[in-house]
């Protein structure tokens, strides 16, 4: 029976190499079963804390409890990244800022093209590309001011991490669904 | 404007080092991650398209996480604590 501790040691054995290889290792890292298990155990811990301490943060899209879960899942994801990427560090610092300042979320409308008539640093890029890059930078946490190659590197890792987050949460939901139906069957049966 | 200040604080190396070839190479690497564009050949898909698909994909992933969070919050509210945790621990150890 695999011990969670040995799985952690296995994932730490991957030594960082050159930048490109490191990026590859980072992206494929999220797809390994061991990373998913690490993340799911962190997620369960975070969810347990959410249950005991219900927050009352109002949000337009999600009810309070769901938002707390989403925040806990993002935090757990950022922890699992072990601080190697900018987006994970940004998530962890942003949570603190949001609690102190109650910052409003930026709208997703592309409104930066009017401010930037192509006189930016990268004169080689077309305006359409520039717009898309700016939008992408807004979506990955903490990566608004990054140069293009760094932004793509962060995006690569971020997408892989998000996919793992979705897989893990879906698996957890399935697990809870099946276990709750099972327990309902056993409790409803006459003893 | 704050955007001007942020632009000036951007790394100066990005002004000189990025060539068009580099951009297309990075964009093609990104294209391989996207589930929708993996089948198409790279010369049929423009860089702007790849970036837009990337943004759409990230948005859809965020949406999935939010939906799963809602579902999990409902599940956690209704299920029995001990049986749920036992099931989770069992699955983590296997």
TrEMBL record, chain A:
Swiss-Prot/TrEMBL keywords: Nucleus, Transcription, Transcription regulation
Major localization listed first in the record, in broad terms: nucleus
Keyword Methyltransferase in record: no
Domain BHLH residue range list: 113-162
InterPro entries (alphabetical): bHLH_AtIBH1-like, bHLH_dom, HLH_DNA-bd_sf, IBH1-like, IBH1_N
GO molecular function, one term: transcription cis-regulatory region binding
Annotated localization: Nucleus
PROSITE patterns the UniProt entry points to: BHLH (PS50888)
GO biological process, one term: regulation of DNA-templated transcription
Protein name (Swiss-Prot/TrEMBL): BHLH domain-containing protein
GO cellular component: nucleus
Positions of the UniProt region annotated as Disordered: 1-32
Lineage: Eukaryota, Viridiplantae, Streptophyta, Embryophyta, Tracheophyta
UniProtKB/TrEMBL annotation, chain B:
GO BP terms in the entry: regulation of DNA-templated transcription; regulation of growth
Limits of the BHLH domain: 7-61
Keywords associated with the record: Growth regulation, Transcription, Transcription regulation
A GO molecular function held by the record: protein dimerization activity
Lineage: superkingdom: Eukaryota
Gene3D superfamilies named in the record: Helix-loop-helix DNA-binding domain
Key word Transcription present: yes
Positions of the UniProt region annotated as Disordered: 1-21
SUPFAM superfamilies on file: HLH, helix-loop-helix DNA-binding domain
UniProt cross-references to Pfam families, sorted A to Z: bHLH_ILI (PF23174)
Entry keyword annotation includes Transferase: no
Protein name: BHLH domain-containing protein
Species whose genome carries this gene: Kingdonia uniflora
Taxonomic path: Eukaryota, Viridiplantae, Streptophyta, Embryophyta, Tracheophyta
């Amino acid at each position: 029976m695999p011990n969670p501790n040995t799985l952690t040691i296995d994932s730490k054995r991957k030594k960082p190499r050159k930048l490109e290889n490191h990026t590859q290792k980072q992206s494929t890292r999220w797809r390994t079963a061991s990373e998913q298990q690490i993340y799911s155990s962190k997620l369960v811990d975070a969810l347990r804390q959410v249950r005991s301490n219900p927050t009352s943060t109002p949000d337009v899209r999600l009810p309070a409890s769901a938002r707390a879960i989403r925040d806990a899942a993002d935090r757990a994801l950022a922890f699992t990244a072990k601080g190697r990427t900018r987006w994970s560090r940004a998530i962890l610092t942003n949570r603190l800022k949001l609690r102190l300042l109650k910052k409003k979320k930026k709208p997703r409308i592309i409104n930066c093209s009017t401010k930037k008539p192509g006189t930016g640093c990268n004169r080689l890029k077309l305006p359409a590309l520039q717009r898309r890059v700016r939008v992408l930078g807004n979506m990955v946490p903490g990566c608004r001011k990054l140069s293009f190659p760094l932004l793509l590197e962060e995006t690569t890792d971020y997408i892989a991490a998000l996919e793992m987050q979705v897989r893990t949460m879906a698996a957890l939901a399935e697990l809870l669904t099946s276990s709750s139906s099972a327990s309902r069957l056993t409790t409803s049966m006459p003893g | 404007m704050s955007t001007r200040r942020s632009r000036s604080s951007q790394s100066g190396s990005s002004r000189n080092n990025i060539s068009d070839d580099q951009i297309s190479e990075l964009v093609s690497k990104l294209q391989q991650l996207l589930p929708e564009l993996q089948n198409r050949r790279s010369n049929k898909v423009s860089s702007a398209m790849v970036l837009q698909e990337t943004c759409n994909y990230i948005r859809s992933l965020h949406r999935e996480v939010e939906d799963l969070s809602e579902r999990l919050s409902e599940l956690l509210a209704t299920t029995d604590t001990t049986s749920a945790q036992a099931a989770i621990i069992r699955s983590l150890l296997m």
